[in-house]
Request: fold
Amino acid sequence: MPGEAKPDFSKWHGMDRNAIKWGPVIDETKCVGCGFCVVQCSERRNVFGYDEQKRKAVVLDPENCMVGCNNCQVACLWDAISFPDASGIRDLAKQLVESGKAKEELEERLKKNPGLKLELPP
Ligand code: SF4
Ligand code: SF4
Reply:
């Protein structure tokens, strides 16, 4: 549904994704329509669409953007993509670290993926 994250992305570390302001904005005056942002974003998320008439990329579903990602902004050679100030996301990250939630998630991740755990040599 437009304006809401897909069910797969509706939570960010347990928080309501729809309540988090994070997603790309395209400056139409700078966009040259190369389309790289469309293919740079993951196919599962498909945040961008492409307007064939205007020959420009468009943001379809900003709520499906991964919180904290700015991959497409970095990749846009014409600097046509911007994001909100990241300090709000850093505040949320701080809460996750200080509450111990980040540690819990790390432990679960390492349990599920033992190959990520590097043992120090004896
Ligand atoms: S990468 Fe930049 S210039 Fe290219 S279509 Fe996307 S916004 Fe426009
Ligand atoms: S920041 Fe990442 S997830 Fe968000 S729209 Fe850009 S490429 Fe997609």
